[in-house]
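RECORD TYPE: protein structure
NAME: LuxR family transcriptional regulator
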Amino acid sequence: MSQPTDAQPAPHVSIKPSGHDLPWPLLDAIASLTTAPLMRIAEELRTATLPFLASSSLVIFTEDCTGRPQKKAGAEDIVSRVSIPELDRLRAALEGEGPWRGPAVIGGQEREVLAFRYAPSNALLVLTDPAPAPANAAADTDSAALRMVNYFWRLAAARIQEKVSDAPPSYLLESRAASAERVRVTGELVDQHSTTLETVLAALRSNSLDDHAARTLVTDVTVKALVGLRTLNDRTSNLVEEPVATAFERLREDLRPLMHFSNIDIQFVEPPAKGRALPGEVAHAARAVVRGLVLAIAEQSNVHRVRTQWDCDGENLLINVRDDGGGELSPAAPTLERLLQRVQAVDGTMSVDIMQGWGADISVVLPLDPPPTPAGDVAEWGLASRELEVLQLLAAGQRNRTIATDLGISENTVKFHLRNLFRKLDVRSRTEAIALAHSAGLR
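PREDICTED:
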């Protein structure tokens, strides 16, 4: 199509908005999706797609969300059973961004699925049992409906990426609590199934079994099951941690457009390659804070060079950002106040040193571990000293066996203390006890 020129003016298009003519349900769905909090993003995406393509469940898998990499809506018997290894295998089968349609194991059962991938974050969308929506039963599900679903999916994936990149304090606190709880639950599963499988191995290797061929076969199957279980544990742990070198490289990629389109030279001093891995929420906070600082610095005049450095002392991520400007940045600026809130959300500190004529020197310290002592007053719970010790270890994500070892008591004694804890805290589960402990500052 030829472009309009002076000799060929562009045609005038008259738009007369009419409430009756606009597709309000579609516009409302887009508005809800682009403003949805992360906790409701899967529900909003399913609501938006159902008028175009029916499905029994919708699952989003994104490793950007360290606390809850799965976001799900739909049939409870599916969403409660879907696992990370299942989603990993499906994502590996996709070529490009999709859509991909075919049979896949989701929720422990082979189902017909429709899958899309979002390349910028490698996020995955899975719809189980896809079918034409009742209102559009005659529609071509391979064309218009698929394009609409893909359009909604890209909006949702971009929304997730945006929220995680911004790393607001509420997200960071939720991510830390969810990460600790997921590691605890996975650890319990590993202990439970490892003990069972190791017992089976011992029995099958016993001389009391004569059928050597059968014993060899079953032993091989059981060993593979053990390896798979350990792999699942490692995979889950990896989701809540990020190698410090990888986290820093992602920061460099985030700032690359600014380096390309501005006259500012951003210098990177990399952390030790073998430094301690960063908890996911700390990595997100660190990148968000540095991006915010660099953007605030870039708004000043006479800034030609910014130096950002990460280091790690084993207990903290140490961040330093300096510029060569005239020292115009104000520590009381709203931008720095917002960044300070993000730092404090993960129990960190930030100091800003402004040198007139010499620029700004900003240091941030982010602890890699949650605070070990309670910030709130738990005396009103009436806990005995041993009960408080058990609760602190429980809030830190420890399992019964580890708590027993750390305190030099039996697992039955740990269970006894937990029953008393639940009664005194008026909770019914470990998850509720951990959430209450976290709200009081126990980590």
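COMMENT: The two ends are 62 Å apart (CA to CA).
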